[in-house]
């Protein structure tokens, strides 16, 4: 037995999302099928508007609705510290903790040769440009403790050392387990990781 084409197409679309398998995709498709038509239209419009209403902050590369995000324009934040993260979700996770009051820089990934992602695919050069143009005293490399995250952190640290910038380069302290993911860590773990950050060696 095969499903009607519309259901198959939607199921396949859901399957392309991370962490969604065939059974979950089919459940989501049938759930939408049973929703009232106005709700389905509202859902569809939200998906369509996602790309058109969002842009990258020209400073930190986080997602926002304006040219510069609300964090970058907030003069109450410590302008001398930049926390470097992999994804916008990491910014959201760290902000929830409420222990960090500096700025961010989003790389949008990590160096991953197996998937043909090199340094030039990430926002590393824009980070270096920011440091050159601002009075930055500390860079926190808050990348996930994976092989790719560690390799990316090492690449950035060496690049900054080669520039001879007078700043401290630190990494998250104990609390984040090896292979962990910042966006899934609880607030206590992230709080300890921020407070216990140490110099990058």
Structural class: alpha/beta
Under the CATH scheme, the architecture of the largest domain is 3-Layer(aba) Sandwich
Q: Write the CATH fold name of the largest domain.
A: Dna Topoisomerase Vi A Subunit, Chain: A, domain 2
CATH class category of the largest domain: Alpha Beta
CA-based gyration radius = 20 Å
* SSE order: HHHEEEHEHEHEHE
What is the domain total for the residues?
2
Largest sheet: 5 strands, mixed
In percent terms, what proportion of residues is strand? Answer: 5-15%
Annotation, overall tally of beta strands? 7
Unreliable stretches: none
CA(first)-CA(last) distance = 59 Å
In DSSP terms (H or I, runs of 4 or more residues), the helix count works out at 7
> What topology, given as strand order, has the largest sheet?
4-3-5-6-7
Shape: elongated
Percent helix, as a range, is 40-55%
Mean pLDDT: 86
Write the layout of secondary structure elements.
Layout: H1 5-15, H2 22-34, H3 37-52, E1 55-56, E2 63-64, E3 81-85, H4 88-97, E4 103-106, H5 124-133, E5 138-141, H6 147-163, E6 168-171, H7 187-195, E7 198-199
Helix pairs in contact: 1-2, 4-7
């Amino acid at each position: 037995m095969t499903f009607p084409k519309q259901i198959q197409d939607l199921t396949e679309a859901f399957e392309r999302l991370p962490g969604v398998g065939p059974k979950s995709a089919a459940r989501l498709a049938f759930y939408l099928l049973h929703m009232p038509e106005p709700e389905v239209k509202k859902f569809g419009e939200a998906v369509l508007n996602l790309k058109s209403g969002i842009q990258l902050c020209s400073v930190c590369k986080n997602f926002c609705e304006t040219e510069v995000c609300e964090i970058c324009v907030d003069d109450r934040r410590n302008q001398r510290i930049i926390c470097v993260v992999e994804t916008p979700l990491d910014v959201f996770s760290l902000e929830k903790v409420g222990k960090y009051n500096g700025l961010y820089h989003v790389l949008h990934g990590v160096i991953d040769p197996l998937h043909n992602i090199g340094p030039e695919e990430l926002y590393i050069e824009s980070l270096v440009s920011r440091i050159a143009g601002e009075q930055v005293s500390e860079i926190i490399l808050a990348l996930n403790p994976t092989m790719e995250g560690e390799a990316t952190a090492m690449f950035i640290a060496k690049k900054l050392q080669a520039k001879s910038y007078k700043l401290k380069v630190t990494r998250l302290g104990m609390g984040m387990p090896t292979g962990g993911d910042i966006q899934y860590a609880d607030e206590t773990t992230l709080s300890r990781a921020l407070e216990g950050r140490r110099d990058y060696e």
